[in-house]
Write a structure and sequence with these properties.
The chain is α/β, with parallel strands linked by helices. It folds into three domains: about 1-100 and about 180-215 and about 315-390, Vaccinia Virus protein VP39 (Rossmann fold, 3-Layer(aba) Sandwich), CATH 3.40.50; about 110-170, no CATH class; about 225-315, no CATH class. The protein is built from twelve helices and 19 strands. The chain has helices at about 15-20, 55-60, 80-85, 110-120, 165-170, 195-205, 260-270, 295-300, 320-325, 335-345, 365-370, 380-390; strands at about 1-5, 10-15, 30-35, 65-70, 90-100, 125-130, 135, 145-150, 150, 155-160, 180-190, 225, 245, 255-260, 275, 310, 315-320, 355, 375-380. Helix 10 (about 335-345) packs across helix 11 (about 365-370). It is globular.
């Protein structure tokens, strides 16, 4: 086992169970991690199974009561991941969907496979880029390559062929997999030790989710005060004795997160709109169908946020910085830093210690470093341990 430390972080190269056995009970404030998905990804040995119940039990032991776990999972093996987390003793609280637009289809072309099996030659009718940007005809040159992820002329091109046999024609256009565009994130919590969540928060300093610091920023003009001057519903005026402050801190964080590309695609579909009035809190009048006055009442009670934009503004959209695009990190499952920062901030109290028992190239550590938290990371692979060491500036 190798160990390197600085003022705010310690990283280990070794088996996470053995490393965690050296940690005391109820030590960490949160766990944010991207473990193996059990997909045998690119033939990597570390991805031959999801983490075991034994591993999650050790992670549970060192996490404070009420502390949250955020763990990425694969769409095909997420059920196995979550069952193991639950069997270890965690409470499953929610699932966050990480939706991205740059996934690459890995579908097998059934028509092409049939012609290959029958020994048939197929006519080349065009070129297709590995970036999934669509086909190019024979007339296009190498200089016509599209951009992919902000990096031009990096994708490979493959021939587009037409089916030859009758059987291949019948199965033309059929494949075996969908384009990957989302990864589920399990939100779990260690059971509280006290009778109530309030008592647990006061004792351990964990148990809640940092809503306000993770709100989605608003765009456009915000109405600061939302006051109802008068109202007539049953032939009489009622003068309310309250003022309702308008939300100026952002939208409530949702269990859906987009990347830049997915957000852009969503906005193209939705178009630009301006937020309209919200629902009235006056019970039966919120549907605007009593005496035809509900709509007027609703507009006075809640004129809306007043911001405009595409539908992606309702969700957090993780952006990739220019620095990230050129970092040269070759870990195959690296996540955007802004995404990791959002997740760390969501579940970690001020001054907290974050654990990543499947550290990889250190993205969680970089997020904790920027946000001012302490970090403990573990990875079994020496190669990624040293990449994390360089990225974290040890």
């Amino acid at each position: 086992m190798k160990e390197i430390l600085n003022d705010s972080a310690i990283i280990y190269c070794g088996d996470n169970i053995e490393v965690l056995k050296k940690c005391p009970d109820n030590y960490f404030d949160s766990v944010v991690t991207d473990p193996p998905y059990g997909l045998k990804f690119m033939g990597k040995k570390w991805d031959y199974d999801v983490p075991s119940v034994e591993q999650w039990e050790e992670i549970l032991r060192v996490l404070k009561p009420g502390g949250h776990l955020l763990s990425f999972g694969g769409t095909r093996t997420y059920h196995r991941l979550v069952v193991n987390i639950e069997d270890a003793g965690f409470e499953i609280r929610d699932q966050i969907q990480w939706i991205y637009g740059q996934g690459f289809p890995k579908s097998y072309n059934i028509s092409k496979g049939i012609d290959k099996k029958l020994g048939m030659e197929r006519e080349v009718v065009g070129l297709s880029s590995s970036a999934g940007m669509g086909g190019l005809s024979k007339k296009h040159s190498e200089n016509d390559r599209p951009y992919c992820g902000g990096i031009p002329n990096q994708e490979k091109f493959h021939p587009i062929t037409a089916p030859s046999s009758d059987e291949a024609i019948q199965w033309d256009g059929w494949g075996t997999q969908l384009k990957p565009a989302n990864e589920p994130i399990c939100l779990a919590r260690k059971p509280i030790s006290e009778k109530t969540i309030i008592e647990n928060v006061l004792k351990w300093g964990v148990g809640g989710i940092n809503i306000d610091d993770c709100r989605i920023e608003l765009n456009g003009e915000i109405v600061p005060i939302n006051k109802l001057e008068n109202w007539s519903g049953f032939g009489e005026e009622i003068k309310p004795d309250y003022e309702q402050e308008q939300n100026t801190v952002g939208r409530f964080p949702a269990n859906v997160i987009f990347d830049e590309e997915a957000g852009r695609m969503l906005d193209e579909q939705s178009g630009i709109s301006t937020s309209s009035g919200g629902q009235s809190s006056l019970g039966a009048f919120r549907n605007g169908d009593i005496f035809g006055k509900g709509k007027d009442i609703r507009e006075k009670i809640n004129p809306g946020l007043g911001d405009s934009g595409g539908a992606s503004r309702f969700f957090y959209c993780a952006k990739v910085s220019k620095k990230e695009r050129g970092q040269g990190n070759d870990h195959p499952t690296v996540k955007p830093q802004s995404l990791m920062e959002h997740l760390v901030k969501l579940v970690t109290p001020k001054g907290g210690i974050v654990l990543d028992p499947f550290m990889g190239s250190g993205s969680t550590g970089l997020a904790t470093e920027k946000l001012g938290f302490q970090f403990r990371g573990i990875d079994l692979e020496e190669k990624y341990f040293f990449i994390a060491k360089e990225r974290l500036g040890f």
